[in-house]
Amino acid sequence: MAEIIKDGTGSGKSLQVNSEHRALVSSVSRSLRTYVSMEQGQSFSVNTGILTLSAIDTWHWVLWWNNISNTRDLHVYEIVINWNGGSTNYNRPLEARNVITTAGAPTANHTAKIPSNNNKKSSNQAELTVYGWDGAAAGMTNSAGGSGNNTFHAQGRSILGFGDGHVISGLNEAVGIQVRSPEVGDFNIGLECFFVDSLFNL
């Protein structure tokens, strides 16, 4: 007697097989960030607000975050940079870089930021400590440096997409963003990010 695989929902439908003995199936593909948002409620965003860069050719710490989760890695899949192009020639780019920092939280010229929840079916709060520059002096005061990772140049509105996450903060790992420009100007930086179970816990 031939074995029959039936639908488990009670519809009574059986699995179809073609002439090459292959199962006929259909599926829907979703990105990782869509999955974790819809199924786990772990998608968030962070924004610096509009700030003025007045000290030229000087690196400013403008954003710092620490993944305080004990079970999940933070994936940043998009960085949005808005820059007015400078105050004199209006054609000078803003230079930005993300830095894996060995320092603790900023000690001066900073303000706490609360990540926004991007999940429609969840009220989860991000396991993330975030500080942004408050506009005073030449950036947030950070007690130690770090190693630079990626450097970006932005004019107008620049969207840096990393697929399902290129800038990754592991368990209890801190990352920051620095910017500088040869001209005075206003800028804004936004992060789109999500949490996934850390490979170290699998």
What does this structure look like?
The structure is a single chain. This protein is mostly beta strands and 202 residues long. The chain has one domain: Jelly Rolls (Sandwich), CATH 2.60.120. Helices cover 4% and strands 43% of the residues. It is built from 1 helix and 13 strands, in the order αβββββββββββββ. The protein has one helix spanning 32-40, and strands at residues 43-47, 51-53, 60-67, 72-83, 94-101, 110-113, 116-117, 128-133, 146-154, 156-161, 167-169, 174-180, 185-197. The strands form 2 sheets. Strands 1, 2, 4, 7, 10, 11 and 13 form a 7-stranded antiparallel β-sheet that branches. It has a 6-stranded antiparallel β-sheet with strand order 6-8-3-12-5-9, with no helix packed on it. The longest helix is centred in the first third of the chain and has 9 residues, at 32-40. The two termini are 41 Å apart. 32% of the residues are buried. The model has no long low-confidence stretch (mean pLDDT 84).
In a nutshell, what does this entry contain?
By secondary structure, the protein is mainly beta.
Architecture blueprint of SSEs:
Blueprint: H1 32-40, E1 43-47, E2 51-53, E3 60-67, E4 72-83, E5 94-101, E6 110-113, E7 116-117, E8 128-133, E9 146-154, E10 156-161, E11 167-169, E12 174-180, E13 185-197
Question: What top-tier CATH class fits best?
Answer: Mainly Beta
Number of β-strand runs: 13
Number of domains: 1
* Major sheet summary line: 7 strands, antiparallel
Strand content: 35-45%
Number of helical segments with 4 or more residues: 1
Low-confidence stretches: none
Global mean pLDDT: 84
Outline, from the CA principal axes? elongated
Q: Report how far apart the termini are.
A: 41 Å
Helix content: under 10%
What is the N-to-C order of secondary-structure elements (H for helix, E for strand)?
HEEEEEEEEEEEEE
CATH third-tier fold name: Jelly Rolls
**Structural class by SSE content:** mainly beta
- Rg from Cα: 22 Å
